[in-house]
Amino acid sequence: MGMTITEKILADHAGEKFVEPGQFVNVKLDLVLANDITGPVAIKEFKKLNTPQVFNREKIALVPDHFTPNKDIQSAQQAKELREFAKEQELTNYFEVGEMGIEHALLPEKGLVLPGDLVIGADSHTCTYGALGAFSTGVGSTDLAAGMALGETWLMVPESIKFVFKGKLKPWVSGKDLILYTIGQIGVDGALYKAMEFTGEAIEELSMDGRFTMTNMAIEAGAKNGIIAPDEKTIAYVRERAKRPYKVFSSDPDAKYAQIFEFDASDIEPQVAFPHSPANTKPISEAAGIPIDQAVIGSCTNGRIEDLRITAQILKGKKVSPYTRLIIIPGTQEIYRQAVKEGLVEIFLDAGAVVSTPTCGPCLGGHMGILAEGEKCIATTNRNFRGRMGHVTSEIYLASPAVAAASAVKGRIAAPEEVR
Amino acid sequence: MNLKGKAWKFGNDIDTDVIIPARYLNTSDPAELAKHCMEDIDANFSRKVEKGDLIIAGDNFGCGSSREHAPISIKAAGVSCIIAKSFARIFFRNAINIGLPILICPEAAEKIAEGDQVEVDLAAGSIKNLTKNEVYQAQPFPPFMQEIISAGGLIPYVDQKRREKS
Ligand code: SF4
Predict the structure, then answer these.
(1) Is residue A144 within 8 Å of residue A138, measured between CB atoms?
(2) Among candidates A316, A318, A342, which has minimal Cα distance to A330?
(3) Which of A80, B38, B132, B139 has a CA that sits 20 to 30 A from residue A355's CA?
(4) CB A343: neighbour CB atoms within 10 A?
């Protein structure tokens, strides 16, 4: 019987020929990731071990990205714990402010995750790396501590759901719109414990950046991982970054799926997820007009170079609406540099946007754009939970960079066509 | 281990941002986190909840972030057990790993009302509603997790495993 790509990667790392959903497997880890929030908790647990030594100092990545550059004394303390641990264990993949980026934009860019890898991270959006054809999933800090010590972890082989996107995308429709649409269709627990596998003509057409956006939000449907089989685009992306060999897997034609969804991508409009759930999606035609106080373009979902290029395309020669704040956050230093080189940052500044150094910042209500009572924000981030970006009565609308940028110009939720 | 207390009911998709908002994540001190447990859904929860009390919830409890601070804050607030129709995957692992008992039982989640007195026998997976005089049966843990629980959590379990290896 055939296996899915997810099953094949798990089998490969468990040293098995065949695995099936529901089976518990012990798997070897290619990379273990933590940040400045989850890292300190993991380190505390790790130090309770008898001989606290990491299994491999090259296979652990620590990225202080959430509250950095340190937003207050307590967060400075947490970042310090991460730094001290990296020094003490002589970790090769610690990324200091100035080198760091938002973890899920940074690790693929650095070639630290490759096709066929198995990665756990103490961050729920670790599922992002599925866009490379890797199995990656979020865990908590204690799981991470165990992973750092053993270089392995236990997992249950998930059932897979296949999403086939036929047809071509309409103008201004992006990976973000496809994933918001999908979550809207299946709900925030529509893929609970399962693997979401994305295929079809529209997925092939997406750039790597667009694919990362899609797998990033698999967790928003409760999934264990999101995955896209590698193709030429994937290989082109990793070729210049990989410093070690990798394996390319794909699903067998007779692989078994719990469910198969077929969507016609050419029917999908830009999407907006209304408060307070990523599944509360509506097409832009039903969202346009809602006044906003702030727009945020960034995060591990949409802070990549393509996102910034689209943002610049919308903003060029335009101004952000009066009394509206537009905050743009490149995902990594590399993306930031590229945006400067291409003149994108100048377009942003001319439009009246602020551009920040890479940080998670407002995405989790950390800093750099917290919302006051009753304020409304359109964001390219991945969660619009109650209070996520600030006051508990504030509201977050999730959308693509094109929609967020157009909305910033209009001061209300707007379709890209209204501006361009 | 027997757990007994009053039931506090919550709905579906209770996410980690309402369990413990990120604005409090600049600390990992359990007592500090406990003060803000469930704050964005019930501002007074941490003052009302008493040691031993249980949380009863619907589907997908603990969805969202991987922050272990969520189960830590619930445990430190005095909650002895969470019973839900289903749990988000990462929350489920985290709860087991830090020794916060959780049970999946749709029947109990339906029938237990806010304020009911509830007693849980974890080993047997049985849930007694003392107020309504009813008993519900939860799914038992898979053997894999029972091993972790009996070792006293994931960290002692790992120590044990590393000793076996060397
Ligand atoms: S950008 Fe937002 S979702 Fe992504 S890792 Fe940072 S806080 Fe989490």
Answers:
(1) no
(2) A342
(3) A80
(4) 11
Using the mean position of ligand 1's atoms as its centre, give its distance from the Cα of residue A4 in Å: 28
Nearest CA to ligand 1 atom 4: A300
Q: How far is residue B87 from each of residues A138, A360, B62, B81, B126, measured CA to CA in Å?
A: 15, 26, 6, 13, 18
Q: Answer whether A5-262 and A273-418 agree in fold.
A: yes
Predicted confidence band of residue B133 (pLDDT cuts 50, 70, 90)? very high
Task: Render pLDDT for A355-369 as a digit per residue (tens, 0 to 9).
Answer: 999 999 999 999 999
Collapsed DSSP state (helix, strand, coil) of residue A192: coil
Q: Which of A172, A187, A161 is nearest to A268 (CA)?
A: A172
For chain A, the domains span 5-262, 273-418
Going by DSSP bridges, is the β-strand pair A259-264/A160-166 parallel, antiparallel, or unpaired? Answer: parallel
> Tokens 């157009």 appear where?
A406
Rounded mean pLDDT of B45-52? 96
B73 and chain A: CB distance < 8 Å anywhere? no
- The residue among A131, A128, A135, A144 whose CA lies nearest residue A59 is A144
CA distances from A93 to A40, A238, A240, A301 (A): 16, 18, 18, 22
Q: Tokens standing for A354?
A: 């602020």
pLDDT of residue B150: 67
- H helices present in B1-78, as ranges: 16-19, 30-34, 45-48, 69-76
What pLDDT digit, counting tens, does each position of A294-335 carry?
A: 999 999 999 999 999 999 999 999 999 999 999 999 999 999
CATH H superfamily, domain A5-262: Aconitase, domain 3 (3.30.499.10)
Q: What is the mean pLDDT of residues B82-98?
A: 93
Of B59, B68, B142, the CB nearest to A142: B68
Has residue B86 got a pLDDT over 80? yes
Strands B81-84 and B102-104: parallel
CB-based contact (8 Å) between B146 and chain A?
Answer: no
CATH of domain A273-418: 3.30.499.10
Instruction: Give tens-digit pLDDT for A193-223.
Output: 999 999 999 999 999 999 999 999 999 999 9
Q: How much is the average pLDDT of A158-187?
A: 98
Cα–Cα distance, A2 to A11 (Å, whole number): 12
